[in-house]
């Protein structure tokens, strides 16, 4: 469909070698975009242009931005997908200063750092789309499981909204996509670790987690490709009047009007 065509567009997808990031990279490439992916470690093989970078390292972010400028002349689409739950559960008493700093650096500061490096070129061309991949945890924290992660994603939501307001008159759209439970390797590992610590099966662990969040009305986790399809729409010309909004893709799990 022409309104979803991304031919001639250049996109950077961070964390683009696995899970949601890989699905987004494949989706945008199928729509005609030139796709660059970044991660700390190179994949065994990929059809996309790969640049190694640790986005928690300011020098590596600067090098990534420079290489993109030199090799591609900039980008039109930035998907800030890097992030993850890296801190222990157990509530506030289990989290040290280092835990908080680690989670905020990975899930918030890395996006801010990369935006700052790449936005000047978008501003100069008076066009571009920035997508921040957040999480429904940013609206529904589970104190015993993901407190620091949820806080970091809530901060990302707020930053994304503020940035969208600043950049709207400069021709740049900024949007946030907040997946719920999605069938990725990190999610499977989280479920297995949670279940092992509780002495239950992964199936029972999933039931317990869903009980805490109110369940998933659609009865299953999302596939990474379903998140990618939403991102594709949001970066396409069909979404030209959309900016500043958070889009939850969670099978109806958030128990509030948002």
TrEMBL record:
Name of the molecule in the record: SDR family oxidoreductase
Annotated InterPro entries: NAD(P)-bd_dom_sf, Sc_DH/Rdtase_CS, SDR_fam
Annotated family: Belongs to the short-chain dehydrogenases/reductases (SDR) family.
PANTHER family attached to this UniProt entry: 3-OXOACYL-[ACYL-CARRIER-PROTEIN] REDUCTASE, SHORT-CHAIN DEHYDROGENASES/REDUCTASES FAMILY MEMBER
Matching PROSITE patterns: ADH_SHORT
GO molecular function: oxidoreductase activity, acting on the CH-OH group of donors, NAD or NADP as acceptor
Keyword Membrane applies: no
Superkingdom classification of source: Bacteria
Record bears the keyword Oxidoreductase: yes
Keywords, ordered alphabetically: Oxidoreductase
């Amino acid at each position: 469909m022409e309104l979803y065509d991304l031919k001639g567009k250049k996109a950077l997808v961070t964390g683009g070698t696995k899970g949601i990031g890989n699905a987004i990279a494949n989706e945008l490439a199928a729509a005609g975009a030139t796709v660059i992916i970044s991660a700390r470690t190179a994949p065994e093989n990929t059809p996309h242009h790969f640049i190694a970078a640790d986005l928690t390292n300011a020098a590596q972010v600067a090098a990534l931005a420079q290489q993109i400028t030199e090799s591609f002349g900039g980008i039109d689409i930035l998907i800030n997908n890097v992030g993850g739950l890296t801190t222990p559960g157990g509530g506030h008493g289990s989290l040290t200063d280092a835990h908080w700093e680690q989670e905020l650096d990975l899930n918030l500061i890395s996006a801010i750092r990369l935006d700052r490096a790449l936005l000047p070129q978008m501003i100069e061309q008076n066009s571009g789309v920035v997508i921040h991949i957040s999480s429904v945890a940013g609206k529904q924290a589970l104190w015993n499981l993901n407190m620091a992660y949820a806080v970091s994603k809530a901060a990302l939501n707020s930053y994304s909204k503020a940035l969208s307001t600043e950049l709207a008159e400069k021709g740049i759209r900024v949007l946030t996509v907040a997946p719920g439970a999605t069938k990725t390797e990190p999610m499977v590992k989280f479920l297995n670790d949670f279940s092992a610590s509780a002495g239950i099966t992964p199936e029972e662990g999933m039931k317990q987690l869903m009980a805490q969040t109110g369940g998933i009305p659609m009865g299953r986790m999302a596939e990474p490709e379903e998140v990618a399809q939403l991102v594709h729409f949001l970066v396409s010309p069909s979404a030209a009047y959309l900016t500043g909004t958070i889009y939850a893709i969670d099978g109806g799990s958030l128990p509030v009007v948002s």
